[in-house]
Amino acid sequence: MLVIAVVALLKGKNNYFGLFYMVKHSFMTLFHIITPCTQILKLLTLLVYSLFKN
């Protein structure tokens, strides 16, 4: 993951494509980290809600 970013940075020293690829890759990584967290939070809130409802 980090290696790909470094390679993209080295390749993209003169053009903007490398920079764009790096930013896109970073966003994808963040998205993949954040998505499961939000799913877990949703499940937890549902669980707490159902506990308090009963």
Beta-strand percentage? under 5%
The Cα radius of gyration reads 19 Å
Termini distance? 46 Å
Instruction: Quickly count the helices.
Output: 2
Overall 3D geometry? rod-shaped
Overall mean pLDDT stands at 80
Helix content: over 70%
Description:
The protein has 54 residues and is mainly alpha-helical. The chain has one domain. The protein has two helices and no strands. The protein has helices spanning 2-11, 16-53. Helix 1 (2-11) packs antiparallel against helix 2. The model has no long low-confidence stretch (mean pLDDT 80).
Question: Tags for this entry?
Answer:
54 residues, mainly alpha
Annotate the secondary structure layout.
Layout: H1 2-11, H2 16-53
Helix pairs in contact: 1-2
Quick overview:
The protein has 54 residues and is mainly α.
